[in-house]
Design brief:
heterotrimer; A alpha/beta; B mainly alpha; C alpha+beta; A: D-Maltodextrin-Binding Protein, domain 2; D-Maltodextrin-Binding Protein, domain 2; 5-stranded mixed beta sheet; 9 helices; C: alpha+beta; Rossmann fold; OB fold (Dihydrolipoamide Acetyltransferase, E2P); 2 domains; 6-stranded mixed beta sheet
């Protein structure tokens, strides 16, 4: 129970206070070995994989240190636009990316929706239509965040009108409602289901294929540690990076 | 020291004005950056009205609950010698230091569908608080109650308990003495506490979104609407904030005249 | 409605013990310095502080007896209390204050207000019925408090320093009115005061309380005439000494000898009033038997006399005229001869 609480709280707290304190980054253009601090703003759904990749990156570049700020992509985009010091931005939606950078962006993974259900699928859900059953409590992401937009699209494709009990502010909060048993089903990314495999099961549905989310990444033009940022971005796009991401359930383009 | 006006110490005035500016400037920022041209359109949307209505209803209901439960609690803390009173007082202040989101999680763990008490509420009565307007009220009351209790307890401690003794010698039971003597005596403290409590409930975000979720019309209060608007359209978030600000100032000022103004 | 009580209250290391008996229609005053335990006695009688042991019986009904497990809370005793600072309810009008006790006892609002208005009329405040306590003068507030306590027609009326908060001029007037109301009241009254004049004017009997114990009991006249402690002697303005008498000569415990007019033997108190003292620059010739040398320790101007504090064997207080002070050129530290006529002294057995 305690762990669930911590999981739920983490993304919100991070989104709230991630960008405040930060020692000055090392001068850019430092040459081959990457040094100094690299600040990465990344979508909440990347929390597990990027944390892992950050450690791997630091291991490969002993002089470097990676700092993360995970949160809703739209909130992160806004923080960056308000001057938050970020070197790399990895967004869960191209729309949010567009608010920050037009050029230099690369789609590094795609994420697909799944129906997250309680362990063992107690309500025997098999299709998107099942989440509309009256006895099922459904949680969705708010339309303003990428997973909500994707869910909306999936329901449109299936020509269904969902009746959620709540529209959560990010994908982790949505998933937590399933973990706590407060809802019976939620539409979240496959990767989030994998990361929480201990507590939830995922159910695939065909409409998800038409509501795929592209994840773009960019080294920001105003980066204070541009070389470090570029190196981290390259690391994500490397085979090693893709391997970790794929293992977590992301599709590579 | 030579001039009469120099009696106001500058050492105090400078930090005082900096403090005032610190509180006022963010609001000025909201006003300056508000998209005045589209303001009317933004306000006219049904969602804004709904969120505002819900916010006012929930904050007022939460304040009512806090009054019914919090005033007796404050009385118990201030006037009785029950064992464990100090511990109880410490617990009353917990929601003040708890991040509201954690408060929301804690509420879920107790009143959620699988919660310590919630599972029985659900199984026996079919009552489930999360994702309902009642859940919003519960979350707001949890976070706002300490403000009321602390204010009322302070007022009770400041009130002379001998008035209750005088009432007793006149034949009043403790309940009658409380109702007819103590309550009116501490009424200004209760009013001040209620205002604080209501304002805190109105601005509540973390516990509400965590415990009650977010759905327009049932659980989406203004702060939630503001937060989600911020995800997509910062301008409309600014407008919503201004609305919340304006409504609360109008209500608080009018109440202040009616309740607290009579004291001077 | 006789009050009969054996009070025994322990508060930390302080112990109050007092036997109190008051007949209906009479007033008992507890007189003593601050901290003597008078207010504690009053609180015990009202039920605001339970007895440690002993008992309180009011009109034949036991209301507090710890040994028998009896304790009747204040709201169920028939006791009216006028508190020192009145404790009028600030949010109620005068008439609502007076009606409060009646309403708490279940009377309907209309009847209670009518009765309260009548009581206010009786204390001469009909015009102030709608006033809030803060709009009342000290004397008016005192009368509202009295009306409030009497309105419930209690068997026992308790007055805690009822005149202490008033200025001197108001006090004389209110004291006289209070006397009138107490005469009309049929129950027993217990008055607590540190002002001997209040006690003398208002009470039929006096208990003098010092350090939690009753040191003297009697009628006001008795006590004024025969004080048994320095405190009372000072209160009633007498010089008081303890000594051993052998005929007309009394050897004082703290040194010195006084001669009295009447024969007496054994341990005695001996008193004389400050007005009986004469002061002289030189040793007077002739008769007075009580003559000794003393030093001026202090001079206080009173209304029309001057009180002179003198140290010697024994110490004493003397009241002299302003003219005498001028004639003697009295200053602190000056030596003067003191004489007191034997006929002015009064000795009585301990």
């Amino acid at each position: 129970m305690k762990k669930l609480a911590a999981l739920l709280v983490a993304p919100i707290l991070l989104a709230g206070c991630g960008s405040s304190e930060q020692p000055p980054a090392a001068p850019s253009g430092a040459g081959q070995p990457v040094t100094g601090e690299v600040t990465v703003f990344a979508a909440a759904s990347l929390t597990e994989t990027f944390t892992q990749l950050g450690k791997d990156f630091e291991a490969a570049n002993p002089g470097a240190k990676v700092k993360f700020n995970f949160g809703g992509s739209s909130a992160l985009a806004q923080q960056i636009n308000q001057g938050a010091p970020a070197d790399v931005f990895a967004s869960a939606s191209p729309a949010n990316m567009k608010q920050v950078a037009e050029t230099g962006t690369v789609t590094f993974v795609k994420n697909k929706l799944q129906i997250a259900v309680g362990k063992g699928n107690p309500h025997k859900m098999a299709s998107l239509a099942d989440v509309l059953k009256p006895e099922i409590k459904l949680a969705l992401c708010a339309e303003q965040v990428p997973c909500g937009a994707a869910a909306k699209k999936a329901f449109e494709v299936a020509k269904l009108t969902p009746k959620p009990v709540t529209l959560e502010q990010d994908v982790k909060a949505t998933l937590t409602k399933v973990k706590l048993g407060e809802v019976d089903a939620a539409l979240v990314y496959e990767t989030d289901v994998s990361a929480a495999a201990k507590d939830v099961d995922g159910v695939d549905f065909p409409e998800a294929a038409q509501a795929v989310n592209d994840y773009p990444i960019v080294t920001l033009p105003k980066a204070r540690n541009a070389s470090g940022g570029k190196a981290f971005m390259d690391f994500i796009l490397s085979d090693k990076g893709r391997q970790v991401l794929t293992k977590a359930g992301f599709d590579t383009p | 020291m030579r001039a009469v006006r120099a009696r106001v110490p500058v050492v105090l005035l400078i930090p005082a004005f900096i403090g005032l500016a610190f509180l006022v400037l963010p609001m000025v920022g909201l006003v300056i950056r508000a998209p005045w041209s589209t303001l009317v359109d933004q306000l006219a949307t049904a969602e804004v009205g709904e969120a505002l209505r819900l916010s006012l209803i929930c904050a007022t209901s939460a304040t009512a609950i806090c009054l019914v439960l919090g005033v007796p609690l404050a009385w118990m803390l201030a006037r009785t010698e029950l064992p464990g009173r100090r511990v109880a007082r410490a617990f009353v202040t917990v929601p003040l230091v708890l991040p509201p989101v954690v408060g929301g999680v804690a509420l879920l763990l107790v009143f959620g569908r699988r919660g310590v008490l919630g599972q029985y509420l659900d199984a026996w009565f079919g009552i489930s608080l999360p994702f309902t307007t009642a859940g919003v009220v519960v979350a707001e009351a949890f976070v706002a109650m300490p403000f009321l209790v602390i204010a009322v307890e302070g007022a009770l401690r400041g009130a002379d308990p001998r008035f209750e003794e005088a009432a007793a010698t006149l034949g009043a039971s403790r309940w009658t003495a409380f109702r007819r003597v103590t309550l009116p005596t501490v009424a200004p403290g209760i009013a001040a506490g209620s205002v604080l409590c209501w304002a805190r409930a109105l601005g509540e975000f973390g516990a509400t979104i965590t415990f009650a979720g977010n759905y327009p019309g049932t659980t989406q209060t203004m702060p939630l609407a503001v937060y989600l608007a911020l995800e997509q359209d910062p301008d409309s978030a600014t407008v919503l904030s201004l609305v919340l600000l304006a409504v609360s100032i109008v209500i608080l000022v009018s109440l202040r005249d009616r309740w607290i103004g009579t004291r001077a | 409605m006789t009050l009969q009580a054996t009070l025994n209250v322990h508060i930390g290391s302080f112990v109050l013990t007092a036997d109190v008996e008051v007949e209906p229609g009479t007033t008992l005053a507890l007189l003593g310095p601050n901290g003597a335990g008078k207010s504690t006695a009053l609180r015990a009688l009202a039920g605001l502080r339970p007895l440690s042991s002993g008992m309180i019986e009011l009109g034949g009904r036991l209301v507090d007896a710890p040994e028998k497990g009896v304790f009747v809370p204040p709201e169920q005793r028939s006791v009216g209390v006028v508190f020192q600072d009145y404790l009028l309810f600030g949010h109620m009008s005068a008439v609502d204050n007076v009606a409060f006790g009646l309403r708490a006892r279940g009377m309907r609002k209309r009847e209670a207000n009518a009765a309260a208005a009548e009581w206010l009329d009786r204390v001469g405040l009909a015009a102030q019925a709608r006033h809030r306590p803060r709009q009342l003068s000290g004397g008016q507030a005192q009368r509202v408090a009295l009306a409030r306590a009497l309105a419930i027609q209690p068997d026992l009326l308790l007055l805690d320093e009822p005149l202490a908060a008033l200025d001197a001029a108001t006090r004389i007037q209110i004291r006289a009115q209070l006397r009138k109301h107490l005469d009309a009241y049929e129950g027993a009254t217990v008055l607590v005061t540190h002002d001997p004049l209040d006690a003398m004017v208002l009470a039929d009997r006096l208990l003098v309380v010092e350090n939690g114990s009753v040191v003297q009991a009697g009628s006001p006249a008795e006590i004024a005439k025969r004080p048994r402690t320095d405190y009372i002697a000072a209160l009633v303005g007498l010089n008081l000494y303890r000594g051993t008498a052998d005929g007309v000569s009394i050897k004082l415990d703290d040194g010195g000898v006084l001669t009295t007019a009447h024969r007496i033997d054994g341990p005695v108190f001996v008193t004389f009033p400050p007005t009986a003292v004469s002061l002289h620059k030189t040793r007077p010739e002739g008769s007075p038997r009580n003559t000794w040398l003393a030093e001026v320790a202090g001079i206080e101007q009173h209304a029309d006399t001057v009180r002179v504090r003198l140290t010697g064997t024994p110490d004493l207080l003397a009241d002299v005229t302003t003219a005498a002070v001028a004639e003697l050129r009295l200053t602190s530290g000056q030596q003067v001869w003191v004489t007191v006529k034997a006929t002015e002294t009064h000795a009585y057995p301990i």
